[in-house]
Amino acid sequence: MGDRESSHTGIDLDIICISELVTRDEGAPEKFHDGIRSDPNDYRVYLNGIIKRMQGRDAFLTFAQQINNVNRILSMDYSSAGDIARVILNDLSLTAQVLKLVNSSIYRQFSDKGISTLSEAMIILGTDEIRELAAGLKIFEMMKSRANSMVLRDKMLRSLHRSAVARQIEREKGGRTSDAFPISAMLYEFGEYLVALLDPDTYIRVEVALEEEGVSRETAAKMILGVTYFELGQMVALKFNLPQKIVQAMRPVSLTAGQSLKIAPKEETRYLCAFVYELCNIPALENDAVSLDAAGTLVDKYRGLLDFDARQALTLTCTAMDRVIRHAEILGIDPVLTEPVKSDPGIKNKVKLDLGISRVEEALGEGLSIHEIFTRLIDTMAQCFYFKQIVISIKKKENNTMVPRFVRGEKRPDGFGQVMGFKIESASDIFNNAIDRKTDIIVKDTQKEFSRQQIPSWYMEKIACPFLVKGFGIFPVFVDGKIVSMLYVDWDEKTPDPDQNTLSYIQRFRQQMIKAFTLHSK
């Protein structure tokens, strides 16, 4: 893209050497671009791969150690308050968070004057309560520090929500159900979280299989990994010596609505965790008929376990989410879950699209090169939309032209990229109009007389007519008010015009491009 020049200022991609964009420093940490090897006939292959990455030399070096730290707290069942306090006090950040939380509105009823030390907290709230609270906060902090994608952020929030629901159930029942309950509920999706964190490529494969094969999430995981997410989570928990009662509670149950439940006392936590998991997957809308109906089905399924009706169950999960929201400032998060997946005629695979967006966000968070970021971005667009051609052009400063750098779509003759390049000048055509007016332009029919008056002849002769382009869209990219790039898409008669939802996604990709340029300039 040209040689570096010290006199260059601003955010022009052409000052970057292309060889630097595609070469990674040998000493740089691994980024897990490739999936872990799996064998559907031998779960140990994938399990060993996950364990190896957890213990690896890369950016997740401390992950296994953090789990061991959590385990130290969880394993202190019969230790003295002083011993437990010393373990917590070794982590100053954890100590501060525990004290902030016990002084929040949830625990305010226990002390009007406020709690200033861990010892005081243990006297007022109980040793087990503080030990469990510290372990939960440690798990949450471990997940939050790695939530560099929407998928991981969602899983972190859902784990916190399940924990809050579990604590609320304990209060409703009038005592502690089990000291494993809130922690087990929090870790219920541990296996799925690990795959999304350590092996995002394989996680996407499972999500695609789920949608295309029409099977459950656990069946899709077993098809790809050789093991279900729940089984994987339990195996890893055992590997790191988490308490047996927690591992046992993470095991899913098989129930059908209306059957009579006879649960042994030692199995109660396991069934409660399964109930909480399903309850938290219902949209938390108290007055929504669909949500109420789903809650009714769930309550009937677990009848005999809890004395809740549908309305009470839905209120329970809403109250717990309200508690998560109230403590957002203390926990340092934005407690908003993503919307459920909805079908869209202009999108091939929405699950894959959302995961692709998350992968671009990961690349931005990891400081990857613009080449890597834009490659992920345009590959996602090509795989998930019905566009015939997608082009990312970059402004070349030396001759003030817009030059295609990334091209995806149906096969076009060699030199297609060069044809799509154009001179940036006074608004003489539709491409320059978009730049001059700083606006997106959608042409739905290239054959209409009005459109043809605005479209440059070079485009009609070399692109539109030879390749039967029905419509196209151009989306200029500005940073600090200066044009730096342009995103182009087109479609033919067989492809529907992009709707507002599709255009919203394109605008999200543009925001990611702007962020990439901005980060690189720094």
TrEMBL record:
Gene3D superfamilies the record matches: 3.30.450.40, Hypothetical protein af1432 (1.10.3210.10)
Short name of any one Pfam family annotated for the protein: HDOD
Enumerate the spans annotated as HDOD domain.
60-256
Matching PROSITE patterns, A to Z?
HDOD
Question: InterPro entries given for it?
Answer: GAF-like_dom_sf, HDOD, RNase_Y/CdgJ
Q: What is this protein called?
A: HDOD domain-containing protein
What does the record give as the organism's lineage?
Answer: Bacteria, Pseudomonadati, Thermodesulfobacteriota, Desulfobacteria, Desulfobacterales
